[in-house]
Amino acid sequence: MKSLDEMSLNDAIMLYYEKHDALLKGNMKQLIELKNTCPDIFDKEKDSQIREMIDYAKAFQTTDRYKELRRLCLKEKLTIVNNQKIDK
Hints:
With 88 residues, the chain is mainly α. 66% of the residues lie in helices and 0% in strands. It is built from four helices and no strands. Helix 1 runs antiparallel to helix 2. The longest helix has 17 residues.
């Protein structure tokens, strides 16, 4: 059994979405597996904390600062390619 506090944020968010997807579909088998794997995911406080983090991240993605940081990150990955013929 893993604790949500020991997991990475991405793993915790994935479990959150798995749980809520299983709840919507009524998939009891998956819910039981999730309960055995990580019982913390069913704690009301932790569930609301993850929901708040997701909402905050979604709101941040709409800001100009996020767009600027995204552009800078992309710019770092880009390289200039010179298309010059090499004489042999």
